[in-house]
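User: ok so my PI wants both of these folded by tonight, can you help

Assistant: No problem, let's get them done. Here's the first:
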Amino acid sequence: MFKKFKFLGLAAALMLVIALAACGGGSEEGSDSDSGDSGSSDGGDSSSGVELGESELTVPYVAWAGAMARTPLVKQALEEVGYTVETKQVDAGAMWTSVANDDASFMTASWLPATHQSYWDKYQDDVEAIGAFVDKAPLAMTVPSYMDVSSIEDLKGNKELGEAVDWTITGIDPGAGVMQNTQTALKEYGLDNWELSSSSEGAMLSQLQKKIDNKEPIIIPGWKPHWMFAEMDLKMLEDPKEVYGGEGDRIEAIAHTSFQEDSPAAYEVVKRITEDYDTEMENKLLVAINGGAEPADAASKFLEDNPDLLKKWTKGIGE
C-alpha cells in the first residue's frame, strides 16, 4: 500500500514538472510574439512593424500659411500611430536652429535651395531632407494685377510708383528667407531709394487686402502656393537675375540627422506624406483655413475625407 502511494506521489510530481515546463515555454513563446508585434520587421512589407522609438516629438513652424496648413496634417497622422506631438510657433531662424541642435524633431517649412540657403549653409552637417511637400514653389516681388509694372527692373527710378508706396515694399517677419531674398534684390537691381518693411504675414495680408479694396498700389514679397493668389488678382514680377531662385524652391521636411534612428516610424510616416503631398493638396487646406477653419480642423476634415491616404501613410506602423 505504501509503495502504491509512493508511486502516485512520484507520478504527481512528474506531472507538475511537465506542466510548469509547458507554462514556461508558452510564456517565452508569447514574449517573442509580443516583441514581433511591437515593431520588429517580419519580412514581406518592408514597413511592417516599424518601431515608434522616441515617441514625444517637437515640431517647430513659422506662422506662414503653408506651414500652418502642413504642420497640423503631419501632426495628426503621427498621433494616429501613437506619437505625442508638440508644435511650436517660432521664427525661421529658431526653426532651423532647434532642428539642427536636436531640440526639435523635424520641420515642414524649409525652402531650398534659394530662400533658406543661408540656413542650409550653416546647418547642413546636422540636418537632412526627408522629402519634398512641393517640388516647385516660386517666390517673387508681387503686386496687384492692375499695377502697370511687370518686372523688378521697372521699379528702378520709378518716382511715381515710389512716392505712391513711400518707396516701401511691405514685408513679413524679418527672419523669413523671402525677406532676405528681397533685401538682396534691392541691391542686385540697384533699388537704392527703396526699403523693405517687416511685420508679420497676417499684417502684410491685411494691408494687401486694404490696398486692393481701394485699388491702390502695393508691393509685397509673395510666394506660391498661397491662398492669396486664389482670392486676389495678383501677379509676380519678373526676376531676370533670378534672385528669388528662378522656377522656385522645394518646400521640404527637414529633420535632425538622428531623427530616423531615434523615431523610425515617424520618419517613415513623414516620408510617405511628402511622397503624396502636392500643391493641389495644400491649396485645399489653404482655402479651408482662409474660409475660417482652424488649421487643426482643416487637417482633421481632410483626413476624414481621405481615409485611404491616412491608411496608406500609417500602414505597417507598430504592427
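One down. Here's the second:
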Amino acid sequence: MCAPAGSGKTTALLQYAAAYPRTEYVAARPGMTIAELERIVASVPTNSQLIIDDLDLALPAAIDELLKAVVSCAPHAPRLIVSSRSCRLLRAQNIVARGFGSVIDRTDLAFDLAETQQLADRLGLTYDAKDLAELLHVTEGWTLPLTWILRSATEDTRRMRDAFERWSSRYGPLLIEFVAEHCSRDTGMRDAFLAALRDRAQCTQPVLAELAAAGCPVADVRGSLRPYRILRRLATRSLVKSRRAEPETSQPLALNLLGRFACRVGDRHVVFARRRDQNVLVCVALSPDARVTRQELIAAFWPDVPQAVAMQGLRTSLSRLRRSIADAAGCEAERFLQIDATISINLENATVDARRFSEHVEYGAMEERRGELESARRHYAAAERLYTDHLLASEAVEPVLAPHVREYMARFGMVLDRLVELFTQMRDLDAARTYERRGLPLRKITAALQTA
C-alpha cells in the first residue's frame, strides 16, 4: 500500500486487521533494523498474515532485506501486507512485475462521490450535487482534508456549501505544515516539494516524478504530474497574501458550458463586453489542458483577417476578458486566466463542468476495461447528471465551437449506451429503460445533424 501521508492507510489496515482472523498488525518505528523485522515475522503463526504499517520508517537496508526474503518464497513465511509513503523504498515495481504482489495506491484509497455523500449524510450536513462535486474537485478525494473539511462544517453552519473556504482560512496552513512534516523523510525532497508548491517554475515533470516516488502528495493525471490541487491552492493563496495586502477572493471561477451558459466567481457573474470574448474563454476551456496558443485563437476567430489586424483584435479581446473576470472576482484575473505566450485557464482555481463530464467518461471507460463495472457505472452516472443539456445549448454557437458540440453529444450518447448495457447486465431493467428514453431525443438530433 503506497500513498502519501493522510491518505487513510493506517485506518484501512486497522479495519482490515479487525475484520479478518489470523491477522497481526505491527506499526514500524523509526530506525527499525532487519533483526527486529525478522523477529516480528518469525513470531507470526503459520498460515497467518502480517501487516507492517509505515515500513518506510525502518532502515532502508532492513526494508531491502525483508523484501528479498519475501520474493525468495521463504518456507512458512506469512502473507505480508505493508504500507509506505514511498513506492520507491518498497521497490514496488519489482515486486509487482515479478508477480509477488500488487499495489494499492492513492486512487484506490481516495473517496469517491458515493463515499463522500455517505459521510456527509452521517455527519448530518446539507448539500446538493454541486457541493459534492466541488468538494471532490478541490480535494481530489484525499482522505485527510476531505474528512477534515466535512467535520469542520459540522462545527459551524452544518452546510457543505463554501465549507472549503471556511475551513481553508482557519486550518489551511495546518495542512501545509502537516505535509512539510510528513511528506518525505528526505529533507531535500521535502524542501523541493514545498518549493514546487510556491513556484510553478520548480514543477518540472522530472522533479515531480522524483517527488512522487519519495511519497510526496503528487497526482498523476492522465500521464501528467502535479502537486495535489488543494495544496497548490492553499500555497498560492498564502503567497499572494504575503505579497499584497489587498483582499482577494478565494472562490473558484465556475464555468458552466453544458446547458445554460454561466460564468461566475462565487455569487458574482462575469459580464462579457462582447460575445467574442466569451467564446474565446470557452475555446480555451475546451482545449487540451485548457491551454491554447495565440496563433490557434487567431486561426479560429480571425481566419481571413490580416495578421496585424488579427493580433490587435486578439489583444483587445483578451484585455476585455481579463477586465471582466477581475471585476467579478475583485482581484487580478491572473488567478484564473494566465496570458503570456499561451492563454490558459488555471484549473487549480477554476472548475469547468464540461471537463468534469469528460473526466468521468474517461474514468468510467478505464474502470470498465479493468472489469470494475460498479465503479464504471458510478462514473458514467455522474457524467450523465452533469450533462444537463447539450454543450452551449443556450448560446448562438460560432462555427469554431460547433465540432465541440458534436463531440460532447457523441460522448453523451456513449454514456447513455453504456448505462443501458450495465444496468441491463445488473437486471435493473427500470433504470436501463430510463437511460434508453433519455437517449431518444439525442438520436433524433444526431440524425438531423447527419442529414443536414
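The CA atoms of residues 7 and 109 lie 6 Å apart. Residues 113-243 form one domain. Good luck tonight!
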